[in-house]
Write a structure and sequence with these properties.
This protein is α+β, with helices and mostly antiparallel strands. The protein has 2 domains: 183 residues, no CATH class; 142 residues, Lysozyme. Strands 5, 6, 7, 8, 9, 10 and 11 form a 7-stranded mixed β-sheet that branches. Strands 1-4 form a two-stranded antiparallel ribbon. Helix 5 packs across helix 6. The protein starts with a helix and ends with a strand.
């Protein structure tokens, strides 16, 4: 079946059954089966518009790429984006404390260190009724527990601790709070300089503040129904919503399943401040923690600044530390992105 015909069938079905979850699944299946060209397009353009690990202004240097284990590198960058601090400061602390979890010493993988206080790859204090870990521990991988020995928990916890201690306004004060020694502050800053590579585009990890409806409608990677296009042309949509859709469309191909007119009233959809996404890069959203839909949920959870969603809902909680991001069983077949007034 030609690509335009498949797209037309999909759009027609969405329009006629916009309030039906069952119909939503049907239209997504039709879209994905009948428009195989879309998946091919995603593969071809992946190198240009594919998933980019959130960063905070600088690429990893060659030394960072050679020295830091891949999963640690990703965790440092995601935590930096989430808490809006320099990921290379985090990486420097991880290097100095435990060589990114590779140090064969007490307290790295179990127990406490030789000082009898600290544990895990980022060496959090776990001693006392209200330890540093008790205060700043994070369930970074959403597995239902917080472990200082798990880098997926310890690294965002370290970012949270630095943020609470003055970063990014005063990194020296924040690092000193992490370890009360001037030599430690100097070593962390020096190692961060070694890990910090070339500067990146400043808007790479967050939606632009300004965008246009024309830019959105002209992007073939943003798949909309005629009714949704009419919503956008009519105006009154929240600028943060528009900029986020455009930002996503530069990185992914998405199927928008609800915007304003095709959602039941009484929600932020009706006010033009929300959207539902039912498929990402050719994958129907099914609520799993892996795959393209999960990738997009995590990217949206990492957005900082005025375009950060105040209501991000999926089948699992993308950021337990943010009350505006949560799980609902009836949202396992789509990603809901919304804004308060």
């Amino acid at each position: 079946m030609p690509a335009p015909a498949a797209a037309a069938i999909a759009i027609g079905v969405v329009r006629r059954s916009r309030r039906s979850r069952r119909a939503r699944a049907v239209v997504l299946a039709l879209l994905l089966v009948g428009a195989a060209w879309l998946v091919v397009l995603v593969g071809v353009l992946g190198a240009l518009f594919g998933l980019q690990t959130p960063q905070s202004g600088y690429e990893p240097s060659r030394t960072a790429l050679a020295d830091i284990p891949h999963h640690y590198l990703e965790l440092y960058q995601r935590a930096g984006a989430r808490y809006r601090i320099d990921p290379w400061i985090l990486a420097a602390i991880g290097h100095i404390e435990t060589n990114h979890g590779r140090l064969a010493a007490p307290g790295v993988r179990s127990g406490v260190n030789n000082y009898g206080c600290c544990a895990g790859p980022m060496q959090f204090s776990i001693i006392g009724a209200r330890s540093t870990w008790d205060a700043y521990g994070v369930d970074g991988n959403n597995d239902g527990r917080k472990s200082p020995y798990d880098p997926a928990d310890a690294i965002p916890a370290a970012a949270r601790y630095l943020k609470a201690s003055g970063a990014p306004a005063d990194y020296r004060r924040a690092i000193f709070a992490y370890n009360h020694a001037d030599w430690y502050v100097a070593d962390v800053l020096a190692q961060a300089d070694v890990y910090r590579g070339a500067a990146t585009a400043p808007s790479s990890s967050s939606p632009a503040e300004r965008t246009t409806v024309h830019e959105l409608l002209a992007n073939p990677r943003i798949i909309l129904t005629p009714g949704q296009r009419a919503d956008l042309r009519a105006g009154g949509m929240d600028p943060r919503l528009l900029s986020t859709i455009v930002w996503i469309g530069k990185r992914h191909t998405i199927v928008v399943t609800s915007l304003r007119a095709d959602h039941y009233p009484g929600t932020n959809h009706e006010a033009g401040r929300a959207m539902d996404i039912g498929a990402v890069d050719g994958e129907i959203c099914r609520g799993t923690r892996h795959g393209r839909c999960a990738d997009l949920v995590r990217e949206l959870a990492a957005v900082a600044g005025p375009s950060r969603s105040t209501e991000l809902i999926y089948c699992w909680d993308p950021d337990p530390a943010d009350p505006g991001m949560f799980a609902r069983a009836d949202h396992c077949d789509h990603i809901h992105w919304g804004m308060d007034a």
